[in-house]
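Issue 218. Parser rejects a valid record. Input:
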Amino acid sequence: MTKTRHGRALPFLFAGIGLLVLSGCGGDDFANKPRPALPVELTGVIEEKEVTISPDEVGAGAVRITIANETTESHTVTLEGENVEERVGPINPQDAATINKTLAQGTYEVVAGSDQLGSDIAPGKLVIGPERPPSNDQLLQP
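Output the parser choked on:
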């Protein structure tokens, strides 16, 4: 039995396709670059006398602060410090809002204000330390 012309070319065709596929692998496009640290979840509460943030010390990187208003008035909340001013609100009584921000090392204040109460509520302090480690070794993350 003799091979046809096309039958002899078939292995070369598969070899060529294989070389094209392999040439697309590797390179610097998929280098093992460090992924940023995962966002840290913080909680905040606006009370009649003060704003409380917990935990109040974390490493630098992305933070998500969920702030609940436990007062009887609506409040606008501002995250201030280190060239950052992020505002959310007004937050109605018994409601919550979220601030998402990437923060550098430094000290920040979470200030709650309203037209009725002015600035009688003491601001919450947030201390941001050195940068958190990358999230490369954490499983089941996007």
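Fixed in the parser; the record now loads. The chain is about 15% helix and 45% strand.
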